[in-house]
Amino acid sequence: MSQDCISAIREEVLSCCSCELCKYRTRPVPGELMGSGKLFLVGEAPGKREDELGRPFVGKAGILLRKTLDEVGAKDVYITNAVKCRPPNNRTPTRSEIETCKPYLIREISCLRPKVIVALGKTASYALLGVDRSLKEMRGRRFQAEYGGVKVDVIVTYHPAAVVRNPKYLLPFKFDIRRAWEEVKGLG
Length: 188
Known about the structure:
With 188 residues, this protein is α/β, with parallel strands linked by helices. It has one domain (2-186): Uracil-DNA Glycosylase, subunit E. Helices cover 45% and strands 17% of the residues. The chain is built from 8 helices and 6 strands; from the N terminus they run H-E-E-H-H-E-H-E-H-H-E-E-H-H. It has helices at residues 2-14, 48-53, 60-72, 95-112, 122-129, 135-138, 160-165, 170-186, and strands at residues 32-34, 39-43, 77-81, 116-120, 142-147, 150-157. Strands 1-3-2-4-6-5 form a 6-stranded mixed sheet. Helix 1 (2-14) runs antiparallel to helix 4 (95-112). The protein is globular.
């Protein structure tokens, strides 16, 4: 059931041209399901490599994220982005672009009914929580939110691209991912 739902969203994302980003992208990048998706990770937008391949988190930041997920033993994971197309010059998505893609994000959450959502970076935390606060203020905190009738905890951490640029964020990033996965396991 959830696989069919995610597949339907995927097809819509692949044909979407609801904003100007479709003019600049190579490929839209729908989310990727591994297992049941009980741990749900949201990034900002596709990078260059993701745009080329049409898959989320496959560049340097993605390698770090996937390695961290392997290290903590996370298997039931869904990885997506707040915005499904790469903005030109790798700029931060605008609020309008985030809002245009938000229905996809809410439907992804409704389909999978995750136990925990991890917001990877400020753009993802804005898309999920609607607050524009510094990552320093938000990181490591747990927020309760509801999306399409699904109540879920949201944990905010660094985007893996920030970790690649600033290795001092590596330990807190890994701690947050481990904590999120432990929470998923604890919730059964």
